[in-house]
Design goal:
By secondary structure, this protein is an all-alpha fold. The chain folds into two domains: about 70 residues, Arc Repressor Mutant, subunit A (Orthogonal Bundle), CATH 1.10.10; about 120 residues, Tetracycline Repressor, domain 2 (Orthogonal Bundle). The protein is about 70% helix and about 0% strand. It is elongated. The N terminus is likely disordered. One of its GO terms (molecular function) is DNA-binding transcription factor activity. This is TetR/AcrR family transcriptional regulator C-terminal ligand-binding domain-containing protein.
């Protein structure tokens, strides 16, 4: 996914324009983490970022556009996947990356706000879908390589394996309020590995 696909304000030029975009997105993230989509006001974001209000309105135009660009930027800045040589090691690395992100006070609140925004705004929902599609695409080769090594059965839906790792962590973030620690991350990864090896994610004939 490129930044341009996220809509207005999503190009990545250099120099002052890039610095303005970075400042605005940082300010937008702060505002979202504090007050959710309802508290995301372009004028307030401009004040926080110390840039002209006209610049923010001209480049983004709406809070939904700003959320879309912020998600595109987050996808691009996310750490690359880890290759350990085993499916269990790779998926534990994936789970711990998700866990560290969601357990962070600012990032966890930011993701809660973005998920909430996606439930009531189609553009925010589309941006969130692109974000997760980018992350699944980044990590899916871990499962594909496991199929090639014979760790997983032929016909495994490798994208579903990756989704199964992070799903329990997001569920815990959004519903239980229980701590998101490395033990929870490892359990999520190990459960996904066990299910995948058992053929739960086989959707095609070998």
């Amino acid at each position: 996914m490129t930044a341009a696909s996220a809509g207005p304000g999503a190009v990545r030029p250099g120099g002052r324009t890039a610095r303005v975009r970075a400042a605005v997105l940082r300010a937008a993230g702060d505002a979202l983490a504090e007050g959710g989509l309802a508290g995301l006001d372009l004028a307030d974001v401009a004040r926080r970022a110390e840039v002209g209000r006209t610049t923010v309105y001209r480049r983004w135009g709406s809070p939904a556009n700003l959320v879309a660009d912020l998600l595109a930027d987050m996808a691009e800045q996310s750490l690359p996947r880890t290759e350990t040589g085993t499916l269990a090691g790779d998926l534990r690395a994936n789970a711990r990356l998700v866990q560290r992100t969601l357990a962070d006070a600012r990032q966890g609140a930011l993701f809660k706000a973005m998920i909430a925004a996606a439930t009531c705004d189609e553009q925010a929902a589309a941006a969130l879908h692109r974000f997760y599609d980018t992350r699944v695409t980044e990590w899916e080769p871990c499962a594909r390589q496991a199929v090639a090594r014979g760790e997983l059965p032929e016909g495994t839906d490798t994208r579903e394996v990756i989704r199964a790792v992070s799903a329990p962590l997001y569920y815990r973030l959004l519903t239980t309020g229980e701590p998101l620690d490395e033990a929870a991350a490892d359990r999520a990864a190990d459960a996904a590995v066990a299910a995948a090896k058992a053929g739960v994610f086989v959707t095609a004939q070998p």
